[in-house]
Amino acid sequence: MTKLDELIQEYCPDGVEYKRLGDIATISRGGSFQKKDYTENGIPCVHYGQIYMYYGLFAEKTLSYISEETAQKQRFAEPGDIIMAVTSENIDDVCKCMAWLGNEKVAVSGHTAIIRHSINPKYLVYWLHSSAFYQQKAKIAHGTKVIEVAPVKLADVILPVPPLPVQCEIVRILDNFTEHITELTEQLNLELTARKKQYEFYRNQLLTFDAQGATILTDRQTDRQTDRQTDRQTDKPNALNRLCQYVSEFIFVKLSDISVNCDSLRKPVTSGNREAGNIPYYGASGIVDYVKDYIFDGDYLLISEDGANLLARNTPIAFSISGKNWVNNHAHILRFNNRITQRYVEIYLNSIDLSPYISGGAQPKLNQQNLYKIPIPLPSYQKQKEIVTILDRFDTLCTDLSSGLPAEIEARQKQYEYYRDKLLTFGERFN
After folding, report:
1. I need a surface site. Which of 59, 178, 396, 397 has the fewest CB within 10 A?
2. Hey, what CATH class is 20-161 in?
3. What is the dihedral of CA 245, 246, 252, 255, to 10 degrees?
4. 3-class SS of residue 13
């Protein structure tokens, strides 16, 4: 028998009493201040939107303040009160709430309910996030675009009110469970971060080449050499130089040396003129639509030509595509002789700083001329294959962790909700 079972047997052997929320609490509306009323310091306040975005189940400090003058016209939550947002865009979020556990009263904005009660505040806020409350709020919520629960309607909500020792034990159990869930989530995120850093380390190691002898010594020499290699490909000494570099494991090339540019075949189509279909329509950062026809069929490397992502690098600027597709004029399109070199170049371009080759102010642009100025350190085919294989393995690991992490967190959250609901469900006492 658990400690909770013992407490229930001791304090409520005949069942737990169920009460109306209005019988154990007074429920009032919040005040009227808005975000524009925030000040750097002053009277602590809670805006209803912050309950959705920033606060968890409990809070001891506020994120915002209002002036004393504004506060004079407001309504306040006292320590231990529940602050509930009573408007939302959907039924799932409406009535999200937190227990205010700070040492001072706080001003509360409109679209809220202030619940001042006589039970354990943590117990009450846990129950107000249970499935039992969800079922009841769904019946009293109204609205279409904006869902609202009138504070006066909350008074008729029925909830179990066990004796205080039972409430405290339930809170202790759920606090521990919440702590474990939080710790697990942090550990999983740290693992993912560590794997990504490991991938970046090995990627940089694999894509950093040391020149042997005096072939490539400085950036300036590299630029001159690259230009000579590109502009004088029929020159016999240059061909010998290339051979010597291959013996030294790599050569510097330009994209024009190893790929065919297909930019002239691109064709932008405005959204209103696209005929819907199942063929991907690509832009600077990936698929932007699906169309009925195609202009390319095969394996290609797309490289962003313009857009803020060229500098922000929130998504890859180089990405491979395959099969039938349509590409607009916001992405360069290159065709390679083999997939290994294509993938190698894709990885390399996504790993380096491209800002020296980007022009434009408000609209960053990597034009074709600058694209072909980028020196590509190209090892032998076998070395390319080795690098691609290793990095793709790391990439798969990171992808698996990235996709598995939300699933693991969701599973633990569902487990938590199951045990929370079990703890907060009692046999009703009949008098």
Report:
1. 396
2. alpha beta
3. 150
4. coil
Encode pLDDT of 28-56 as tens digits.
999 999 999 999 999 999 999 999 999 99
Higher pLDDT, 95 or 420: 95
Query: Which of 223, 245, 250, 248 has its CA nearest to residue 372?
Result: 223
Look-up: residue for tokens 């434009």? Answer: 360
Q: Where in the chain is the domain with CATH 3.90.220.20?
A: 20-161, 252-377
Q: How far apart are CA 283 and CA 351, in angstroms?
A: 21
Half-sphere exposure of 397 (CA within 13 A, CB side): 16
Residue 352's closest CA among 228, 227, 203? 203
Tokens, residue 105: 């009263």
* Contact of 151 with 28, CB cutoff 8 Å: yes
On whether the 252-377 domain is CATH 3.90.220.20, my answer is yes
2 Rama sector, left if φ>0, alpha if ψ -120 to 50, beta otherwise? beta
DSSP state of 275: P
DSSP reduced 3-state for 360: coil
Of 59, 135, 60, 131, the residue nearest 97 (C-alpha): 59
pTM score, two decimals?
0.57
* Cα(344)–Cα(21) distance, integer angstroms: 64
CA torsion sign, 334 to 335 to 336 to 341? positive
